[in-house]
């Protein structure tokens, strides 16, 4: 989760196999910029990942006085995600990654209400493949995109 001016701006969530260093490291390589500052709860795998990837890393233990402030938005985000999955999918677990991606997609676009329909239409128009287009229409669409 990214935080700016004391409030969350963006998030991503991924199901990982375990908490050994390899699982989160694969996610971090794909998702984090090299200038990211990682704040964790002291799990050793995060320290290993941060060191291997050259990320700044600080630890806040749950017993620390500032833990409730440090992890406030993360706890709220996780709670909202659990409510979303329980309310929408009734706690089903067969497609966990898809549920997390949908939650993160909605969370990351929560301030774009006015342009949401326009963005959806643009995505639909320019997505490939276009199974309903005739070949001549497809050539016109490709000419328009370039």
UniProtKB/TrEMBL annotation:
Superkingdom: Bacteria
InterPro entries in the cross-refs: Tnp_ISXO2-like (IPR024445)
Domain ISXO2-like transposase: 3-108
NCBIfam families, per the entry: transpos_IS1595
Protein name, as recorded: ISXO2-like transposase domain protein
Lineage: Bacteria, Bacillati, Actinomycetota, Acidimicrobiia, Acidimicrobiales
């Amino acid at each position: 989760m990214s935080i700016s001016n004391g409030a969350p701006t963006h998030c991503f969530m991924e199901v990982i196999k375990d908490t050994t260093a390899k699982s989160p490291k694969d996610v971090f390589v794909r998702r984090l910029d090299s200038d990211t500052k990682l704040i964790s709860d002291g799990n050793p795998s995060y320290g290993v990942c941060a060191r291997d990837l050259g990320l700044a890393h600080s630890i806040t233990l749950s017993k620390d006085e500032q833990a409730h402030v440090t992890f406030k938005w993360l706890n709220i985000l996780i709670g909202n995600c659990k409510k979303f999955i329980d309310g929408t999918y009734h706690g089903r677990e067969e497609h966990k990654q898809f549920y997390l991606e949908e939650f993160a997609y909605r969370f990351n676009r929560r301030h774009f209400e006015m342009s949401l329909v326009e963005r959806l239409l643009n995505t639909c128009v320019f997505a490939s493949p276009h199974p309903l287009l005739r070949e001549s229409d497809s050539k016109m669409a490709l000419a328009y995109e370039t």
